[in-house]
Amino acid sequence: MLQRIGVSLEQDLLEKFDELIEQRGYTNRSEAIRDLIRDQLVQKQWAESSQQSMGVSMLVYDHHTRDLSQKLAETQHDHYAEVVSTMHVHIDHNNCLELLVMKGKNNEIEALGEKLASTHGVKYGKFIPATTGKDLK
Ligand code: NI
After folding, report:
1. Helix H segments across 24-67?
2. From ligand 1's centre to the CA of 92, what distance in Å?
C-alpha cells in the first residue's frame, strides 16, 4: 500500500534536486526519492553485515580548521590495521582531499568512514563500499 508523506525543503535545494533528477531521467520526484531511500537501505544492509570487505573513504576539509588534521590522523592511527592506504591531495590553498582505502569487516570500516566524515569541520565526507573481489565472477 502506498503512503503519502510531505517533505519540507528549501526552495534552492528543491530546484537543485529537480535539476538532478531530470538529468537522471526521472519523470517524478516520488520515484527519485524512493530510489534514494532504497540506496540508503542497501548501504545499511551492507554496513550491518560482518563480512570481510574493502571500502574507500573520501574527505574534504580545510586544513586550517583548528585541530582537525590532528583529529583525523589520530582516528586513522587508532585503526591502523583497517586503513591500508591513504592519499592526500592539496586542492587549493585551504582545502585538502583525502582518500583512504580500508579493509576489514563491513560494519567496522563503514563506521570508521562515518566517524571520519562526521568529524567536526569536515566539509564533505563519503564512504564507498567496495569488495575484496573474492565473490566477483
Ligand atoms: Ni592538504
Report:
1. 29-48
2. 8
C-alpha grid cell, residue 28: 517524478
Q: Is the pTM of this model over 0.70?
A: no
Which residues line ion ligand 1, judged by CB < 5 Å? Answer: 90, 96
DSSP three-state, residue 110: helix
Tens digits of per-residue pLDDT, 49-58?
Answer: 778 889 999 9
62: CA distance to ligand 1 center in Å?
8
Identify the sign of the CA torsion 61, 99, 69, 121: positive
Task: For residue 19, give its domain range.
Answer: 11-47
Same domain, 32 and 56: no
Residue 134 lies in a domain: no
